[in-house]
Amino acid sequence: MPRPKGSLNKITSEIKDKIADLISGVIESLDTKLMSQQEKLKLIQIGLQYVVPRLRSIEQKEPQEQQNITIEIIDKLSDYTDDQLDNAIKN
Asked: Among 5, 63, 80, 81, which residue's CB has the most CB atoms within a 10 Å radius?
């Protein structure tokens, strides 16, 4: 029987928890005073990916085919037949 929609995969959540604990321990053990400038910059570069949300690329939709619109102004309904008015409404 499949998992209910939206429920977490038990194995995946266990692995994520273990990885999070491991990373947390490693980060706590880092001594930035002993790191070179280049190592500090690399740490910041990697860490920012998980702190700052990424911008999603915007997909450009293909331009739609241009439609021609004709506007006909009718001053007096009495100047037109019913068929002409029906055609003007349909088109």
From this structure: 80
What angle (nearest 5°) sits at the alpha carbon of residue 30, between those of residues 27 and 33? 140
In what helix (H) or strand (E) does residue 43 lie, and over which residues does it extend? Answer: helix 37-51
The amino acid occupying position 40 is K
Which residues, including other chains, have CB under 8 Å from residue 88's CB and lie 6 or more apart? 72, 74, 80
Residues 28 and 20 sit within 8 Å (Cβ to Cβ): no
What is the tens place of the pLDDT at every residue in 18-69? 988 888 888 889 898 999 999 999 988 888 888 877 777 666 677 777 778 8
Please count the other Cβ atoms lying within 10 Å of the Cβ belonging to residue 75: 7
Which two structure tokens, joined as six digits, stand for 22?
A: 């491991």
Under a CB-based contact definition with an 8 Å cutoff, are residues 74 and 88 in contact?
A: yes
